[in-house]
Amino acid sequence: MKKIVIIPAFNEEKKIAGIICAIKSCCSDLDIVVVDDGSSDNTHGAAKLAGAISLKLPHNMGYGNALQAGYKYAYLQGYDIVLQMDGDGQHDPAYIPAMIKTLIENDIDVLIGSRFKEKSGYKTSFARRAGILFFGLIVSAILKKRITDPTSGYQAIKSSVLPFLVSEAFPSDYPDADLIIMLHYEGFKVDEFAMKMKSDPRNKSMHKGIVTNIYYIFKMLMSIFLIIMSFKIFKGQKKRGAECH
User: Fold this and answer.
1) Angle, helices 96-105/13-26, rounded to nearest 10 degrees
2) pLDDT tens-digit map of 133-185
3) At 199, which CATH number?
4) Angle value at C-alpha 104, between 99 and 105, nearest 5 degrees
5) C-alpha–C-alpha distance, residues 61 and 72, integer Å
6) Cα torsion for 175, 178, 183, 184, to the nearest 10°?
7) Which of 120, 155, 164, 219 has its CA 20 to 30 A from that of 243?
């Protein structure tokens, strides 16, 4: 069984080698691909020197595009299990074996590492926690299953999901709650895996700044609305087609 870890990274020259070494120490049978999202530092070189496959995007294209570049590599190379982790050191590689085992034994397609499924002591700002809770409630209502951490970048994914993740339907802007809903409507089984994560000492967030936060909330709500409407329209057309026959 071929397994790979995808790590989107932006200006993580100082941390990326340590993350790669930590993955290798607990999971020697995994390949590692780092997608350098147009960093201004030497993230690309540091990842390569540490023994990872290092892909460098021509310029800063954003987290979603970097992630999809990793998906495309995994898809083309025929990997069976794909894991994704952030490149800032918040995600502990020690959870990888248990995540893979849970994914396979419970017939799950996408397993999301959750900071909030159980009490873990994870600290974040009130605004960010409120946003995660808000979108978690929306996703939970649609999936009819409790989803506590829809913005988590630590996931384990089966190869059957990759054709969708490399398609044009993938929301490359902010693939968070909207992607989970899309995967659910596509018939994939999504679940969570309780874990602890480190708080980033730099307080760095993918969605930082008032303007960026407002844009993110607006964009995510619009994306979710359009996904729901598209699904209802498709479902209605399918039902009418069945009645005609």
Assistant:
1) 60
2) 999 999 999 999 999 999 999 999 999 999 999 999 999 988 999 999 999 99
3) 3.90.550.10
4) 100
5) 15
6) 150
7) 164
